C-alpha cells in the first residue's frame, strides 16, 4: 500500500478533488478488507531482537505489493469514476469490472475469508440502486403475467376481455358463413324465445307485435285450415270476453247478420200470418173464429198454431229403469235422430228431476221438455215411458189418442216390457204397429179438416151471406179509421202544426184535409206530412189560409204556453219575454239541437216577428271525482259514504241520462299496466253504484292513460289518479 501511494505521489500531481476521491477508494478497500492499512501492517509485525531482524525483513518484503504503474492507476480511477456517474446496464458487467479492478491491487490468494461478503457490500454500493430498479421492473412484469393468466383462465374476466370485440367477430362470422350460424342457433331458438318471454313479456310483445298481423295474413293464405283449427277453440271465449268489455261493439258487429236472419224468419212468419188474416172472411177464417170462441182461446193463437203446424218427428218407447229403446218410430223423409243417445239423455233427466227436484212424499213426473220450436212430450206408465219429438202445438185429440194407445200397450204387453233386457225380438210387432198408427194421426187429422159435411156447407153459406157484407164493412171502416188516426197523429206530432186544429177524413178514396193555417208554407208542409204517412192515397188539401192580425194577448199567452211545454223537456230550462212582436229567450239547454228547436217553435207563433235567442248550451255535468291511492283501485271510505250517494241522487233526478265512468291512470313507463289500473278504478265506481241500486245498463266504463280534464303536469300527481263521471244521453 505504501508503494502504491509513493508511486502515485512520484509520477503524477493529482488535483485536490481526485486525491480526495482516491483516498476514499483506498479507505473503502480497507473497509472491505481487500487490502490492509499500513498501520495495521506495521503494528501487526512482532518486535524481535536483532537476531530476528532478517526474518522480519523477509516477512515485510513478502507482504509488500509490487509497484503499480501510473497508467494502471489512471485506468482504474477512470473506470471507477465512470461506474459512479454512469451505472452499467446490467449487474453482471458491473461485477466483471469490479473483479478486474480488484485484481490490480491484490491477488486472489491474498483475499481474506470474508471476501464474498465484501464483494456483496461493494456490489451493493456500486449497483444497488440499479438492481432495485431491475427487481422492481421484474416484479411488475410478473404481476402483469399473473394478471394475464387470471384474465385467460377466469371465465368472467375472459368474457369482459372478449365482450367489446364479440359483436364485430359475430358480424364477420355471419358475413362469412350464414348457414353455420343458422345451424348453431336453430336448436335453441325456441327455448331462447320462451325464456325471454318469461323474463319480460311486455318487451317481447312490443318486439314481435308489428310482425304478427303480416304473419297471420301470410299463414291464412298458405294454410287457412291450420289457422282455423288454431283459432276456433278460443273464438267462443274471445267473443264472451269482448262482450264483457264492450258489448255495444259486438252488437254493432253482429247486427247485420243477426238482424237479417231474424228479419228473414219474421218475414216468413208474418207472411204466413198475413195469409191467415187475409183469409179471415173466407170459410176457413169463419171456422177459425168459431173454433176460437168454442175453445176459449184467441184467434191470434189459432193463427200462430196454423202458421207453425203440428208435426211428429219421432216416437220412442223407452224402458224406464234401464233406458233401453223398446221401439223406435221416425219419419223417413227427415233426418234420423240418435235413438240410443236420446233415450239415455231422457232417462238421466227424468232420474235427476225425480231425485233432486221433487219434494219428499210427492209423486210427479217430467211431462215435457221444450227447446226452440220443438218439444219432447213424455208419457210415463208402468215400466216404460213414451217420448214424442214434435214441432208445433199438439191437439187435444192427439193427446187423448196417444194416452189411449199407450194404455193398450201397457195392458197387453206390460209383462214383456217389465222383463225387457235389450232383445228387440221379444217385443211383439203389435207394439210397433200401434205406434206407427199414432204417427199417422197427423195426416188423418189434416184429411179430416179438408172434408166438409153438406149441412156444414149450407150453414156456412147462410152465415157467410150475412156476415161477409157486415165483416167487409167493419174491416173497411176499421182500415179507414186507422188511416185517419194515423195521419192526424202525424200532423199533431209536428211542432209547427200542433197548435192548429186540423181534421182528416176519407172521402171518395181520397184523404181530405180541412182546417185553417196562417200561411202557405204550413199548408204545404201539412200536405207533405200526409203524403209521407199515406203514400198510396190521393190527397185533397182543403186547408184554408186565414190572415188574421195577431192578438198581442193571445200571442203572449201562446208564447207562455210554448215556454211551459218546452220546459217540460228534460235538459231545457228557459224563460221568454214578448214585447212588440219580439220574443227574447234566455236559459240553458243540454244540446245544440234543442236551442234550434226552441227558436223554430217561437217563430211559428202568430204575431212573432223576431226571435232573439240567448240560450246557452250547457251539457249536464257531475262535479264529483273519485281519487285513489298509488297503484290502487279501491275506493276510499269517505267516497263510498258521500260521493257515491251524490251520483245516485243525480241519476235518480235524470232517469234518461246514462253515465260514462272514465278511469284515469297517468304513467308513461308502463302504458298497459296504467290502462288496466284505470279500468279497474272505473269498475270499482261502477260496482259501488250498482250496489246502491243503479241499473248496470246505465253505466259505461272506459280507461284512459292521459291526464284528466283540467289537470296538467304542474299539478300534484294524486290529482291524476281519479275517476271522472260524464253524463250522456241514453239515445247515444
Can you describe what's shown?
The structure is a single chain. The chain has 732 residues and is an alpha+beta fold. The strands form 4 sheets. Strands 2-1-5-4-3 form a 5-stranded antiparallel β-sheet. Helix 14 crosses helix 16. Residues 615-732 form the OmpA-like domain. InterPro entries: BON_dom (IPR007055), OmpA-like (IPR006665), OmpA-like_sf (IPR036737). Pfam families: BON (PF04972), OmpA (PF00691). This is OmpA family protein.
- By DSSP, the count of extended strands is 15
Number of helices: 26
**Residue fraction in strands:** 5-15%
Rounded average pLDDT: 74
Range of helix content = 55-70%
Question: Low-confidence runs (pLDDT<50, min 5 residues)?
Answer: 1-14, 41-74, 80-95, 101-112
Q: Widest sheet: strand order?
A: 2-1-5-4-3
Largest sheet: 5 strands, antiparallel
Report how far apart the termini are: 130 Å
Structural class: alpha+beta
Q: What is the alpha-carbon Rg in Å?
A: 61 Å
Apparent shape: flat
Domain OmpA-like: 615-732
Keywords: Membrane
Pfam families: BON, OmpA
GO cellular component, one term: membrane
Topology (elements, then pairings):
Layout lengths: L1 H10 L4 H16 L6 H6 L9 H11 L6 H16 L5 H15 L9 H39 L1 H22 L1 H8 L3 H11 L1 H8 L3 H11 L1 H22 L1 H32 L4 H13 L3 H9 L3 E9 L5 E6 L8 H19 L10 E4 L2 E8 L2 E8 L4 H23 L10 H11 L1 H10 L3 H39 L9 E6 L2 E8 L2 H14 L4 E8 L6 H16 L4 E8 L2 E8 L2 H12 L6 E8 L7 E3 L9 H17 L3 E8 L6 H21 L7 E6 L17 E8 L3
